Each structure stands twice: as structure tokens, then as C-alpha cells.
Amino acid sequence: MTGIVEDIFIASEGGHDMGRVAKVEAVAHAGLRGDRYLRRLGYWSGVDECEVTWIEAEGLDEITATTGLSVRNGEHRRNIVTRGVRLHELEGKQFSIGEAVLEYDRPRPPCSYIQSLTQQPGLTKALSKGRGGICVRVVKPGLIRRGDAITLL
Predict the structure, then answer these.
(1) Is 91 helix (H, G, I), strand (E, B) or coil?
(2) Residues 109-118: contacts with CB within 8 Å, 24+ apart?
(3) 69, 92 Cβ separation under 8 angstroms
(4) Of 1, 39, 95, 97, which residue is 20 to 30 A from 26 by alpha carbon distance?
(5) What mean pLDDT comes out for the span 2-9?
(6) Tell me, what's the pLDDT at 38?
């Protein structure tokens, strides 16, 4: 597996736009510094939250090509955009990115909340065709940067 972090997004509170960042600090057993879920301010906080969410860039490419929907500026509501990694193949595994170590948690299918925030009809359906992403947990803290390699441990 040869994968990289293509993009990183965080939002300070649930419902706020996702902001692109060049790097972010992963906090052990908590999430990403500055993100809504680390601060327990996300839409799913206390219900069904993930420390960190990932999505495949290849799936976003396909959505853009086949539907014309905008998914490149964080509309997908996921934290880490990967390239070169089949996320379902990470199940049961730990991996490093930059200084951090993370582990697979579970699939993260999209919900209608994403579509209501972006006001893009069809976005939930486009993301639900196996392209919704996954949840991961932070095992060891550290900085994650765009362009960092994703390495299986």
C-alpha cells in the first residue's frame, strides 16, 4: 500500500464550514486539534461520533466526474482525504501518518445532514455508494501534514 494525505479539513463547530489546513495535531484518544469532535461540538457528539474521519480522493474524483457535485472543498464533511489507499482494507489495522499513529474504527456512511448543510441534492446518495469513508482513532499523538505518507504498521 502506498498512500498519502491529500488534504486535511476541520470545522470548529457542528454546522460550520470545513476549513482546509496544511497540518493538524492528532490528539491521542480524542481527535484533531481545532476540530468540532475533539471539542465535543459536532452534530453527532455524544451520539455517534468519530475521533477522525477519512475519505478516499478517488471516490471524490468519481463523484465529481459522474455527478458534477462539488466535493473538493470539504463538502464531504470528512477530516482526512487520502489517495492511494483502499480504506476498507485498513480494517483491523494500525497505520502511521507523519508523527501520529491511528487505527481503523468503523465505516462512516454519509447521512442526510451532509446534504442539508451543503444544499447539494444528491450528495448523500453519491457518497453512499461505498464512498462515505471511515472513522479512525488516534493511538499516538503527533502532527499530520498534507503530503504525509500513510504506512501500515
Answers:
(1) coil
(2) 110/76, 110/77, 113/43, 114/75, 114/76, 114/77, 117/15, 117/77, 118/70, 118/75
(3) no
(4) 1
(5) 94
(6) 75
